[in-house]
Every structure is written in C-alpha cells, then in structure tokens.
Design brief:
Rossmann fold, alpha/beta, 299 residues, 6 strands, 13 helices, binds magnesium ion, binds adenosine-5'-triphosphate, six-stranded mixed β-sheet
Amino acid sequence: MDKDQLERVAQLVKPYRITSGKGFRLRDFSPADTAGLKSADRAEAKEMLERGVEWLAEQQDMLYAQDHWALLLVFQAMDAAGKDGTIKHVTSGINPQGCSVTSFKQPSSEELDHDYLWRCMRHVPARGQIGIFNRSYYEEVLVVKVHQELLQRQKLHPSLVTKKIWKQRYADIASYEHYLVRNGILVLKFFLHVSKAEQKRRFMERLDNPEKNWKFSAADVAERGHWATYQEAYEDAIRHTASKQAPWYVIPADNKWFTRLAVAAAVVHTIAGLKLHYPVVGAAARRELAAARARLRNE
Ligand code: ATP
Ligand code: MG
C-alpha cells in the first residue's frame, strides 16, 4: 500500500478510535455510520478490504520474521453484531501458522477455580503472531455486571465482593493491557456497535432461513431483553479502559461490509505504525550464507 492509501486508511479509522474515556458516550456513535460511503460504493469498499487483507498477510510475514511484536485483537459485541464474519474476513489472507483465534464462553469449573484473567493469559499471542479474542476478559465487566448472580459463582470470598468491584476490574484490566503493550504485544479492542433494530432483523433472518436456523439461540433473545443495561455496561467499560496504548474502536455494525472495512483499516493502520521490514542480515551471517551457497554449488 502506498502512502496515499495508508493516509486514507488512517482517516477512515480515526473517528472510531477512542484513546481516552473522558466524555465518551456511546450515543454519540451511530451503528449505521459508513464514513460517508454509500451503498453504491460497496464494490469499492470490497476492493479496499481485499487490498488491505492482502497487505496484512505480507506484513504478518515480516512480523513473524522480526519476532519482536505481537498483535492482540479483542472483539466484543452484542449477539449477531457480526464478530464471526468480521474475524473471518480480516484474517482471510493470513498464514494460519501466524494467527490464532480463541473464543471465550461461559467459564468452566476449572476456569472458575482461577482468577479471571488466567484463561485469557494462556492464549495471548507469542511474538510474531496475531491473536484474536472472540469475547474476552471484558465479559467480566459486561455479562457478569448485567447478571450479578454470575459473580456468586466465581468463588470469591465475600470480603472481596464490594461495590468497588467493577472499578477494580476496570483498573486491573487497563493495567494488564498496559503491561502487554510494554512487552511488545499491541492491544486493539473492537466493540462492534449494532443497533437494536438491526439485531432484531438478523435474529428474524436466522429464524426464517433454514440454513441460518443453527445460529439462532433462544438465550440470545433473553439477553436482548437486557439491551439498555448492556449498553451502559459497554459504555462504562470503554470509558474506564480506553487509552492511547490500548485504544477501543467503536465500529458501526449495522452494515457488515463497512464493519469489515473499518476493522481491517484499524489493523492496517496499527501495523503501518510499526514500520516493519525483514531482518537485515549482518556481515558475519552474510559470510555464512556465502559459504553455504558455495558448499551447495560444489556438491
Ligand atoms: P455465537 O453466538 O456467534 O456462536 P458467542 O460468542 O455469542 O458466539 P455463545 O456460545 O453463543 O458464543 O455465547 C457465549 C456466552 O458466554 C455469551 O453469552 C457470553 O456472554 C458468555 N460468557 C463469556 N465469558 C463469560 C464469563 N466470563 N462469565 C460468564 N459468561 C461469559
Ligand atoms: Mg451467541
């Protein structure tokens, strides 16, 4: 990608990046926003996405060769916001050996016997890798905050469960992310922001289309009943954990084609900032290469 294209990418993603919680309000962000791109521009958007994905694959190869940096992409959203499809598209060109996706569901009894970061820490990507979390430790201040009975199952001593617990969790999560960034693991957090009306449309489609029936879960409709509480929980979580080092991206999610483009743009923009290149071989190593070449030639 040339300089102009990277500049375009930077401009596209800028309005959605939250680097400070101060004054952040979810209602200032429209799920239907498409950064001025019209439905008619979809072909162009698709082409941009393809170019971005191709570029990411090339960059991932250098990321691996350098072995300094890793990328952790965290995806959070209400049901049917398009996490799965977005992950699939954005990682489509990447060498499977350089990328891992981990989905976090209700914790198992083994997981509940540990602190809540434990199960996530084990899947943080190694240097040279791109790791994706499909849901994450943020569930601890989202679903667990909305359904506080879940806290009771976490085996915490009652003295540790106080009114301050959410603020403590935000602080711990933010510190943990800063720790990762200081170790060369860049953290990008995506909230795929879908509207309640669009979620209903997608649920209906899952019910109406036999090929999509398997995606439907009655539990999702029950969660929808807590919509407002979830939105507040998301707003609070973003407010308390957005930082320059580990920004949140509030990605409009009513149009899937735009969601994919904006997420890819955020990743491209971050990687571009690393100015990756293949490791340069030093004089001694070059001599070794020359010797190996001579040996092969003389076989
Ligand atoms: P999809 O529905 O597209 O397959 P999903 O991420 O919604 O993907 P599900 O198996 O439907 O996957 O749901 C996982 C559930 O696990 C979600 O409702 C989520 O809130 C819940 N969950 C994840 N982490 C925790 C946690 N730490 N504590 C309690 N519930 C959690
Ligand atoms: Mg689900």
